[in-house]
Amino acid sequence: MKTEHAFPAAALWRHLGAGPDVEPGLRAALAWVVRAPGKGVRMNLVQAMALRFGLSAGKAERLACAVEYFHLASLVLDDLPAMDDAQSRRGQPCVHRVHGEASAILAALTLINRGYALTDEALATAPARVRRAARGWVDRCLGLAGLVGGQARDLAFDPRTTTARDVARIAAAKTGALFALAVFLPAELGRPAPAERRALRALCVYWGQLYQLEDDVADALAAEAVAGKTTGRDRALGRPNLVHALGLPAARRRQARLAALLRRTLARLDELGGDRWQPLQAVFARPVAERSAA
Amino acid sequence: MKTEHAFPAAALWRHLGAGPDVEPGLRAALAWVVRAPGKGVRMNLVQAMALRFGLSAGKAERLACAVEYFHLASLVLDDLPAMDDAQSRRGQPCVHRVHGEASAILAALTLINRGYALTDEALATAPARVRRAARGWVDRCLGLAGLVGGQARDLAFDPRTTTARDVARIAAAKTGALFALAVFLPAELGRPAPAERRALRALCVYWGQLYQLEDDVADALAAEAVAGKTTGRDRALGRPNLVHALGLPAARRRQARLAALLRRTLARLDELGGDRWQPLQAVFARPVAERSAA
């Protein structure tokens, strides 16, 4: 599985178009953000699905970079002092700690700008209906109904009045939104049937919740060196964390239940579309621990 | 000319889609940002040009809101403590001072997200070539080659090593980018001929420089109450300001020269396209002082 590492970082830098004329502080911030793109599971998923549904290699790479740019921008902004005030991310100091807040914000804006442009380029020759559906996902997943709305609720979280159900809903809105984007943006190219669409949507919800749950467990338990990002912050900030809301044993049971639901949904997709959804099967066939480091 | 005031504010709020389910702090920040949209000259220009080139009223309004959203987002982010650390804007306290930095950042992201979505909706049925050209302007004007890149250079400005020429270049990149968007996004619908395109481009450069120059004069001279935004900050922050670089008399001469170049370019457009460019003529026929408060 080591082939994954070759693809993301170089492509992520190249498609930014950050030439030598870009102000050096901003250019350095951009290089910092894209130099540690994780294992690239998300990018590989988008790329594989896009190829499966007929995009050229160049366009599939652009779509994969677009999704990763949106994701990286959300991480950069979430880590800011005014938001989570995080110190480290993926084992590195956060970009605002190294290159300043202004450059971090401008880097995030650059990533968002390029994300939209690359999405456009990737889908330029797709049928109008596909393009419209795909751009609808970008709108919903990133905006008030998705990432931005979820982050606002996350920051406004009041531990005294919030139930485990609320916590799950907030997590699904935020984490699920980026998964939905990684799944549906390329999936729309395959014009999924209504039943496939329902299964894909369920997959995103389960995946998002499971991913967030693993993150919560890591935050509640692990030392900073292990998780590679600032940990224990959820409690310190009074932020939603299912481990705090449910306790560890119940969180573990929920984890097992979500994993089972994921497997069942994948089996359903296999039944409905056969090898159309093989790229998704490939991602979920791997151990959870490996996936969650993506 | 008072009819302008009716249109912008209600449309700007409506197209955000910020329903009652949106987290109250973010919703309040959004309402704050769009409640004082200036005189709406930019929005009226985009709307008038879009109508002139055949968009429906609904789509023309969407395109106008999209351009204004991008503009408002840039103002909100520029005013942040990490950027210009401004206190007031358009006679109101800045949104981050009233609703907090986190809500301000999320409001800006919402505006950007909706800006892209509305651009898409407005151009959905335009020919592929027009759509591609229009989206190219969004990419260039907002990204590293435009607003974001210009803001980075603005913040990195070093008064000891920077010439009046540099100052003009930085101003053109930032201010000119948003004007270019307001002009070219709707103009692409009219498929301008190469000579018209050159004239429109010149118009954007002159307009951007003139607008920025007026801003610089206001910053250098006016009291806060007069300009309606935090003034004298350019000098305090060591930011590029042509009045400081050239002195006031030279700045005034430059202002007159730019105004003459603007008039000449408008005459050229009239010669080339006749009433095709009437909406632009209408904007520039007004006194500069009225325009610059837009």
Q: What can you see in these coordinates?
A:
Two copies of one chain form a homodimer. Chain A is an all-alpha fold. In chain A, 72% of the residues lie in helices and 1% in strands. In chain A, strands 1-2 form a two-stranded antiparallel ribbon. In chain A, a hairpin with a 2-residue loop joins strand 1 and strand 2. The first copy, chain A, is globular, with a radius of gyration of 18 Å. Mean pLDDT of chain A is 86; it is low at 1-5 and 289-294.
Note the topology.
The structure is a homodimer of 294-residue chains.
Chain A lengths: L5 H9 L9 H11 L6 H12 L4 H22 L9 E2 L2 E2 L1 H5 L1 H23 L4 H15 L4 H10 L7 H24 L6 H28 L2 H4 L5 H5 L4 H5 L1 H26 L4 H7 L3 H5 L2
Antiparallel strand pairs in A: 1-2
Mean pLDDT of chain A: 86
Q: Please state the overall shape of chain A, judged from the principal axes of the Cα atoms.
A: globular
> What is the helix content of chain A?
over 70%
Spatial separation of the terminal alpha carbons of chain A: 13 Å
Please write the CATH class name of chain A.
Mainly Alpha
Q: What does the main sheet of chain A amount to?
A: 2 strands, antiparallel
CATH topology of chain A: Farnesyl Diphosphate Synthase
Number of strands of chain A: 2
**Category from helices, strands and their pairing of chain A:** mainly alpha
SSE order of chain A:
HHHHEEHHHHHHHHHHHH
Strand arrangement within the widest β-sheet of chain A reads 1-2
Number of helices of chain A: 16
Largest binding interface between chains: A-B, 43 and 43 residues
Strand content of chain A: under 5%
Radius of gyration of chain A using CA atoms only: 18 Å
Could you list the spans of chain A in which at least 5 consecutive residues all have pLDDT below 50? Answer: 1-5, 289-294
